[in-house]
Write a structure and sequence with these properties.
This protein is an alpha+beta fold and about 160 residues long. The chain has helices spanning about 5-10, 20-35, 75-85, 110-125; strands at about 40-45, 55-60, 60-65, 65-70, 85-90, 95-105, 150-155. Strands 2-1-5-6-7-4-3 form a seven-stranded antiparallel sheet, sandwiched between helices. The protein is globular and about 40 Å long.
Length: about 160
Amino acid sequence: MRPDRATETTQRYLRPLGVERLFSRVLVSLINLGLIRGHFYVLEVRGRRTGKTISLPVDPIDHGGSRYLVCARGNANWVRNARAAGEVTLSNARRRRRFALRELDPADRPPVLKAYLDRYAKEVQRFFPIPKGSPVEAFSDLAARYPVFELVPSDAQR
């Protein structure tokens, strides 16, 4: 892959539509109130420019004994904020927990991406050019497009 093409691939970001942003705000409120449970959490991250806390719904994935955050939209704003902050908070009505982040190298992402797509295909299939159930090898060429962070519990939150 040409260097400029690699940069284009890793910097790609599918911006949400206005209705998606509105739905996201409503979902955050419902999760925080405890009206929506299950796999949804609210991700809180400090904005890299404003310093304000940004909140959005996420679907963490547990795989191989670790918990991960995947951004199906690519290099989204929350991803850039998380990289700058180095930490995020996940919350729902019952609990709030701070995590340090460790971004996975693209070569280490395929098994997590497969688990994520297989688990949450209903919500994220439209962002992936391969179908749910694809072999892990099919994710190798795509891995650089999808940021993946391992969530490492902060020492202060034991």
